[in-house]
Amino acid sequence: xxxxxxxxxxxxxxxxxxxxxxxxxxxxxxxxxxxxxxxxxxxxxxxxxxxxxxxxxxxxxxxxxxxxxxxxxxxxxxxxxxxxxxxxxxxxxxxxxxxxxxxxxxxxxxxxxxxxxxxxxxxxxxxxxxxxxxxxxxxxxxxxxxxxxxxxxxxxxxxxxxxxxxxxxxxxxxxxxxxxxxxxxxxxxxxxxxxxxxxxxxxxxxxxxxxxxxxxxxxxxxxxxxxxxxxxxxxxxxxxxxxxxxxxxxxxxxxxxxxxxxxxxxxxxxxxxxxxxxxxxxxxxxxxxxxxxxxxxxxxxxxxxxxxxxxxxxxxxxxxxxxxxxxxxxxxxxxxxxxxxxxxxxxxxxxxxxxxxxxxxxxxxxxxxxxxxxxxxxxxxxxxxxxxxxxxxxxxxxxxxxxxx
Amino acid sequence: xxxxxxxxxxxxxxxxxxxxxxxxxxxxxxxxxxxxxxxxxxxxxxxxxxxxxxxxxxxxxxxxxxxxxxxxxxxxxxxxxxxxxxxxxxxxxxxxxxxxxxxxxxxxxxxxxxxxxxxxxxxxxxxxxxxxxxxxxxxxxxxxxxxxxxxxxxxxxxxxxxxxxxxxxxxxxxxxxxxxxxxxxxxxxxxxxxxxxxxxxxxxxxxxxxxxxxxxxxxxxxxxxxxxxxxxxxxxxxxxxxxxxxxxxxxxxxxxxxxxxxxxxxxxxxxxxxxxxxxxxxxxxxxxxxxxxxxxxxxxxxxxxxxxxxxxxxxxxx
Lengths: 405, 318
Hints:
The structure holds two protein chains of two kinds.
Chain A lengths: L10 E3 L1 H11 L4 E4 L6 H12 L6 E4 L3 H14 L3 E5 L1 H16 L5 E6 L13 H5 L6 E4 L3 H15 L8 E6 L8 E3 L4 H8 L16 E2 L8 H30 L6 E4 L6 E5 L3 H14 L4 E6 L1 E3 L3 H7 L5 E6 L9 H11 L6 E7 L8 H17 L7 E4 L7 E2 L1
Parallel strand pairs in A: 2-3, 2-4, 4-5, 5-7, 6-7, 11-12, 11-14, 14-15, 15-16
Antiparallel strand pairs in A: 1-8, 6-13, 10-12, 16-17
Chain B lengths: L7 H5 L16 H11 L5 E5 L3 H6 L10 E3 L6 H17 L12 E7 H6 L2 H10 L4 E6 L39 H6 L5 E5 L4 H13 L4 E6 L3 H5 L5 H10 L6 E4 L2 E4 L9 H6 L14 H24 L3
Parallel strand pairs in B: 1-2, 1-3, 3-4, 4-6, 5-6
Antiparallel strand pairs in B: 5-7, 7-8
Helix pairs in contact in B: 4-6
């Protein structure tokens, strides 16, 4: 039996340690992983827990991220709790198998420490890897600090393994700003964390040898569409389970999570929509703007998939101008958040000005002064009742200003 | 413990866990080999299959030919998939969470074609063998990407005309001899690797049982004659396999803990010309301008056979 770890009421953990501790507490049966910056310490910390007798499961140190996710699929189909962690190029390499995992309805949990995608090679944080997963059929949860990374990692298992869901789950955190920045984290005790997530309940497991199953069969034009539709349907419906798990977690810890988080939105005229650590920076900036008389608010997407279409529209129903902050190179169009937020708003009576900011690529710092620029643009647009600046601007870029549309 | 098989009749009527009702070509060696593999044991099996002929023809929703637990992920990763299923078995056994614990570990087996094995899946197989998972990897080697219409792989031999190395006005087809996958896998430190052919069924079953009963990663390369891409009549699968083995195009041997043993010596070695001559893929080699390649082939085969014999002699000399 694995040893229990005595934890303080408040620990000082960076995001990677928060991930690793959550993986240890839920006693993952098989972790198959490959190290890559900035998620490497998640894997290293976890292997220390294994080496020191805190884990009964197996840690398989494979030869690539593609193999990591392949191993996760095999282990999960065999029937047990499975997890891995990666970043950036590693995520890109495992994309093929991400689709296999969700298509086979395997509740694997992936800790994704967000980092830029090459070229040019860059080890720092942005959201291009997170964006790469968006059509992969995984549930995708977003954290802004180590506490949330820990909480969402615990909840990720409970959500994905729910027999009404049976889908894999990504838990995102920002590379370095979250993953390598030690902050206060209030952990659950080992017993409480395990009890909260519960023992893994197998379903259609290959190791139920008396009832053989076939995983990953062929479907062509006669059945493929129905399978993908059913998968989408169940992913869409999973938001009900996500809300239940959030509620149960709040009851246990007092910490509240919502599909969409709103800060200072009750009377806001202008709002920033963001993901990751930017949410906290935007909150600071919004407070400063309010001191200057601008009714600023922040809306954060907690659950990127399934996308909270109605909740986003609800959160923005009274604002006059919105800025969607995309930390990923948009590749020839508007950013993903811009598209999805516009989609959510299009069917409402409120028709705010919606602007798109591309920022922070490859770890470029986003300063409070940058966010103040955004709020100033929003304020001017709100007052004018139309966009006073181009729809898409690059924020924090050196050299001449770059904008489109 | 291995199943005792007395004769071919008993063997061919053993309980089937791989149904004949599948979409494989008539006259394909793959299905014969898979049946021989599955019939070699009464133990439970957990099987993974790489993308390829065997996979697409045996598990089309809502049907499956497999009466065993079966997994297909992608083209390259059946090895890693089954290896980590085996890891999960070990964990659940340790934690006392196996559903039907009877103290008998199932056999974990991965199948892949030569494309999945020699080429695209090689890294995954190499990783699994280096880490020492307890499973058997079986390559169904038909020397071509048969499922996708006959493109060359690194198992395609010299002079073979494939759809990506076609014989043409200025080309005689494939320019290289095949990769020596058996030796490469032995060099990973695998405790048991072998090459077998379905026509030598007793030899094949013995090797399958050895591979299953050996702890650690074991590897079998199966000569799998392909009626469609080798271009021979569908009723000639076994006779072509006979010539393949007796010409030493597919010599039968095993390497057990690094020690090589030849397991079948043809009573009469058939010239390679006779092996090439029964297959449409080598037809152009018999044109005057290409005929010298048949001598190159024969020289290569002679050298390989000599090397195997010398290696066997050496390995058994201490």
